[in-house]
Write a structure and sequence with these properties.
This protein has 86 residues and is mainly α. 77% of the residues lie in helices and 0% in strands. The longest helix has 30 residues, at 30-59.
């Protein structure tokens, strides 16, 4: 019986994590492996953040409008009185 795509992805993910764990244990490769994991965590966070906002926009337009209003209110404070030059 063929493996499901999800099972294959899970197995692949586990293999990648085992490989990264082995590299973390190797003193020479640990900094690079740690950076790879940090980068992956950052990308995952951003993906979840974007997904949440996309779902909010679709699911609750009123809450989305309120969030956008709040963002616009803070746009004027980004430079906090500092001069912007290019």
């Amino acid at each position: 019986m063929p493996r499901s795509p999800r099972k294959a992805a899970d197995d692949s993910g586990r293999a990648i994590l085992r490989s990264l764990l082995a590299r973390l244990r190797d003193e020479r490769q640990a900094p690079l492996a740690a950076q790879v994991l940090e980068d992956a965590e950052r990308r995952l966070f951003l993906h979840e953040y974007e997904t949440f906002h996309a779902e909010l926009r679709e699911r609750d337009p009123e809450a989305w409008a309120e969030l956008e209003k709040e963002r616009r209110a803070f746009d004027g404070t980004l430079l906090d009185g500092l001069q912007f030059t290019v």
